[in-house]
Design brief:
single chain, 444 residues, alpha+beta, Jelly Rolls, five-stranded antiparallel β-sheet, globular, binds heme C
Length: 444
């Protein structure tokens, strides 16, 4: 009797085993694994991006197979910190359990190649060479005309670069992204697009770059005439994707103006040259719905209302929150970008509606400064008039936090300089004015 059960279990186990190995046998590099690796890993693991090596070709992957098996099984790679049960995002990067098992079984099966097809890696390298992660080359790239050298002196720098532009006509922006010849030394970047219609204001007769903490920082004043208006702003953190908009949405790039591009360069051990810029992708179709961006908290709206103030004593774990009442017309949220620095632990944002319902915006249960993202909603979130947006950030400024930049822990401020050893609590929202039917939109 016992024997019979045992045989039954064994048969069943063998059945499972053979179906698993059948799956592994089916999975070959070019047919199954490469598309997955390109979609989930190569955004970062490609030349010029923040990761230490590329995962594009068979050899790239085969060489590191054991390591890859380890990092995908433990969930360390690909990094994805959002709580998907709280809000669903279209640009979700994590692997499903099935995808993990396809990769690991393929590795266990001895890395079968399959029929060699080079199209995917050639297409990817074409985009890499065009300096874009998008699916087509950019229509306009505004970038430094000569490399900026981040000296290997171990000092972090906030550089602002002026990128002037004069176009034949305005352009409808379908997508945009930060680009750089070298991203390893860049902590983050942000850029603002300022229209300058008044042709008596020169775009070129002012300083081209300013080191915000350097002796020439006062030169920044020269740019004040440009800063009267702002069309749009965007940013980049390692791994963040291209910002794209649905068909009839976007914003209009003015004919003439400047982009002021702030690049936060981390300390470097050797000299690093950087040519940074912004890629624009245009569309011919009209923009019926303008996309806007707002920033709540540090460096943005209601910064002073963060309570208690974002001042963290050494040894302290503290939760700060911010409420911003939203009184204008209803809006449709497309993206949420939570931002904290190194001692951030948890980030939550939700809206309380006039009828007391709660609308979940984003939750990062285990914040990691290294892995941030511009999260694109799978279904847009509609924020009615009279909503209150709540942002809650928890910070761990103790010695037990391995991410603490200070050893031993000491006072961390947030006095607006935005250095990476200071703290921030910011929620950036990309939105458009609500229209009936937006409830049914899908952004993936
Ligand atoms: C958001 C960007 C990003 C994505 C997406 C990403 N990686 Fe990474 N990966 C990195 C960076 C940066 C490092 C180096 C720093 C580190 O190890 O934390 C790294 C390190 C690694 C390492 C070395 C780990 C170690 O301990 O040294 C492996 C192996 C790896 N990645 C595999 C993958 C695989 C496989 C995928 C896709 C399933 C992937 N990565 C997706 C950014 C990324």
């Amino acid at each position: 009797m016992i024997k019979l059960v045992y045989v039954g279990v064994l048969a069943c186990w063998l059945g499972l085993w053979s179906s698993f190995s059948a799956l592994a046998q089916q999975a070959t590099f070019y047919q199954t694994i490469q598309p997955l690796i390109h979609a989930k890993c190569a955004v970062c693991h490609r030349p010029g991006e923040a990761s230490p090596f590329s995962l594009i070709t068979y050899d790239d992957v085969a060489k590191r197979a054991t390591f890859i098996k380890k990092v995908v099984s433990t969930g360390y790679m690909p990094p994805w910190r959002a709580d998907d049960h709280y809000t669903a995002f279209a640009n979700k990067r994590s692997l499903t359990p099935e995808q993990i098992s396809v990769i690991t079984s393929w590795i266990d099966a001895g890395l079968p190649k399959g029929k060699v097809r080079k199209e995917a890696e050639e297409a990817l390298m074409t985009r890499v060479n065009a300096g874009t992660a998008h699916n087509r080359p950019p229509d306009l790239t505004l970038k430094l005309d000569k490399p900026f050298r981040q000296s290997g002196d171990g000092v972090e720098r906030f550089m602002v670069f002026k990128l002037p532009f004069e176009l034949a006509s305005t352009a409808n922006v379908a997508a945009l992204e930060f680009t750089s010849s070298n991203k390893k030394v860049i902590h983050h970047a942000n850029f603002a697009i300022h229209p300058v219609e008044d042709t008596t204001i020169s775009l070129t007769n002012t300083i081209a770059q300013v080191d915000l903490n350097g002796a020439d920082a006062w030169h920044y004043q020269e740019w004040m005439p440009y800063k009267k208006q702002m069309t749009y702003y965007g940013g980049w953190i390692p791994g963040s994707s291209v910002e794209t908009y649905p068909e009839d949405m976007g914003w209009v790039l003015p004919k003439r103006g400047v982009v002021l591009l702030t690049v936060h360069l981390g300390p470097a051990g050797k000299d690093e040259d950087v040519i940074a810029g912004v890629n624009f992708f245009f569309k011919k179709t009209p923009i019926k719905r303008t996309v806007n961006v707002i920033s709540l908290g540090s460096g943005g709206i209601a910064e002073k209302n963060i309570s208690p103030p974002l001042l963290l004593f050494g040894g302290e774990v503290k939760t700060c929150s911010l409420q911003v009442a939203y009184r204008n017309q209803p809006i449709t949220l497309l993206y949420a970008w939570p931002h904290m620095h190194q001692v951030g632990k948890e980030f939550t944002a939700f809206a309380t509606l006039p009828n007391a319902d709660t609308l979940k915006l984003v939750h990062i249960p285990d914040w990691d400064f290294r892995w941030q993202e511009l999260y694109r909603y799978q279904k847009p979130v509609i924020l009615p008039t009279g909503s209150v947006v709540n942002v809650i950030g928890t910070y761990d400024n103790t010695d037990a936090n391995p991410m603490n930049p200070n050893k031993p822990a000491k006072l961390i401020t947030s006095d607006g300089k935005m250095r990476s050893d200071q703290e921030m609590m910011t929620l950036i929202l990309i939105y458009t004015t609500y229209q009936t039917g937006d409830e049914n939109l899908r952004l993936d």
